[in-house]
Automatic annotation (TrEMBL):
E.C. code: 3.1.3.27
Residue ranges annotated for the YutG/PgpA domain, each copy included: 35-187
Pfam families xrefs: PgpA
Residues spanning the membrane: 53-86, 107-126, 132-151, 163-187
Descriptive protein name: Phosphatidylglycerophosphatase A
Role noted for this protein: Lipid phosphatase which dephosphorylates phosphatidylglycerophosphate (PGP) to phosphatidylglycerol (PG).
GO biological process: phosphatidylglycerol biosynthetic process; phospholipid catabolic process
GO cellular component terms given for this protein: plasma membrane
Requisite cofactors: Mg(2+)
Compartments where located: Cell inner membrane
InterPro entries in the cross-refs: PgpA, PgpA-like_sf, YutG/PgpA
Membrane topology: Multi-pass membrane protein
Catalytic activity of the protein: a 1,2-diacyl-sn-glycero-3-phospho-(1'-sn-glycero-3'-phosphate) + H2O = a 1,2-diacyl-sn-glycero-3-phospho-(1'-sn-glycerol) + phosphate
């Protein structure tokens, strides 16, 4: 299932974001910008980290809608992300370019699902989210997701190396989000006891 024809850029170096082809359709332009996390993946260094910051910023107002809407948006982002990341990768003519960060957006949203469920209520969201414990919880979720996304312990590393296309781009971040969410719940329960 690996696509050996497309190479993955060296993320230890600063990389320029591959340009959008000049003949791209309006739909491809929209998909490209979604793939770049509305520009949060553009920095030359650490675009995955910046993309995760962008995803976290977008998640906050989405979580204010309540758990069920945030869950539905997160699930939809994962399914649509397979197509968004795959098409953006085709437009960039490379596999899983680090500037493609829609997968980081979906991954951090998965990590935040327990926070959305347990942490804050929809009716008092903006008051609850400004509390110091909520801010600490968001920071812990961010750090845990980046840890799992960067270190790629099994099965994340397997998914990153063995699954090609849009599914391959998304799958490692989905798994990282699930693992980070599980550890986040353990950490938060430990802090609250």
């Amino acid at each position: 299932m690996t696509d050996h024809n497309l190479s993955k850029p060296d993320i230890s170096k600063a990389n320029d974001c591959p340009p959008l082809p000049t003949n791209a359709s309006l739909l491809d332009r929209a998909v490209y910008w979604l793939g770049l996390g509305l520009g949060s993946g553009l920095p030359r260094r650490a675009p995955g980290t910046w993309g995760t910051v962008g995803g976290l910023i977008i998640a906050i107002p989405l979580m204010s809608l309540g758990f069920v809407p945030f869950l539905l948006i997160t699930v939809l982002s994962c399914f649509l992300g397979i197509w968004i990341c795959g098409r953006t990768s085709e437009l960039m003519q490379g596999h899983d370019d680090p500037h493609i960060v829609w997968d980081e957006w979906s991954g951090i949203w998965i990590t935040l699902l327990p926070f959305s469920y347990m942490g804050v209520s929809a009716t008092s969201f903006w008051q609850d989210i400004s509390q110091s414990l909520s801010i600490i919880a968001l920071i812990i979720a961010f750090v845990l997701f980046r840890f799992f996304d960067i270190i790629k312990p099994p099965p994340i590393g397997w998914a990153d190396k063995k699954v090609a296309g849009g599914l391959g781009i998304m799958l490692d971040d989905i798994i990282a989000g699930v693992m980070a969410a599980a550890v986040w719940m353990i950490v938060m329960m430990g802090m609250l006891l």
